[in-house]
Amino acid sequence: MKWFRRRKAEDVTPSYLPNAEEAAQRFWERWFELVPVVSAALGDGEPHRVEDELRDLVSAMHPDLMFSLEQGHMAMYALVITGQEDPRLRPYTDAWIKAAPPADMVWEFHDSVPPVPDPTEVVVNLGEVRMRLGDYRVVAQVDGDVVDVAVYHPALAELTDQQRQTMTFLPLDVTLGERLAGERLRRVETAQLEPQGTISLLELRSLVRELAGVSDA
Fold first, then answer.
1. SS in 3 state form for the chain?
2. I need a labelling partner for 186 at 20 to 30 A (CA). Which of 33, 58, 76, 101 fits?
3. What H or E segment, with its residue span, contains residue 78?
């Protein structure tokens, strides 16, 4: 799993379409032209060949959107475009997913980070730091219908501040799905030392899904 942000500010063209529906329409027009090249690059195991073109395509909708190319749940590949629950960006992701073609055997599309079947099998490489999500431990405190969490991993101390923030939230998003995490997690903190009374990411998933009345099957 690799997430792509926009280029540095000096590299971004600030013009984008304020009309979300029109922006989505232009995206899909260009996507249909580009998708054979994207599929070929992924099939060859070389996603870097199309990263810049996809980044420009997504930024043309709105420069604050993020995207990732992932293994699909039902299809071979998945394209995820998310505004990370930012209400400013919701019109763009709503319009984008509404205009998306039906999923097929090759591609499926998501407007928020979907939960992965087993987050403990995910490994994220940040330079020389290799982080296995199965090594994460979480303290969860339920307050009514929301949960406050403290997140711990032994490698978090080795990261930069920005990386540490990303790797505090990313495991929660891939465990719960971005939307459920946004709805049910209230306060999220990074634990410097491993706290007492921790649970695994899968135990957190069961807890939050039960709280939300969502099946854990």
1. CEEECCCCHHHCCCCCCCCHHHHHHHHHHHHHHHHHHHHHHHHCCCCHHHHHHHHHHHHHHCCCCEEEEEECCCCCEEEEEECCCCCCCHHHHHHHHHCCCCCCCCEEEECCCCCCCCHHHCEEEECCEEEEHHHCEEEEEEECCEEEEEEECCCHHHCCHHHHHHHHHHHHHHHHCHHHHHHHEEEEEECCCCCCCCECHHHHHHHHHHHHCCCCC
2. 58
3. strand 77-82
The tens digit of pLDDT for each residue in 23-66 reads 999 999 999 999 999 999 999 989 889 988 998 999 899 988 88
The answer for residues whose C-beta is within 8 angstroms of residue 126's C-beta and 6 or more apart is 159, 163, 167
Tokens of 19: 């009309």
82 with 69: CB under 8 angstroms?
Answer: no
Give 43's Cβ-side CA count (13 Å radius). 8
Q: Which two tokens mark 146? A: 């929301």
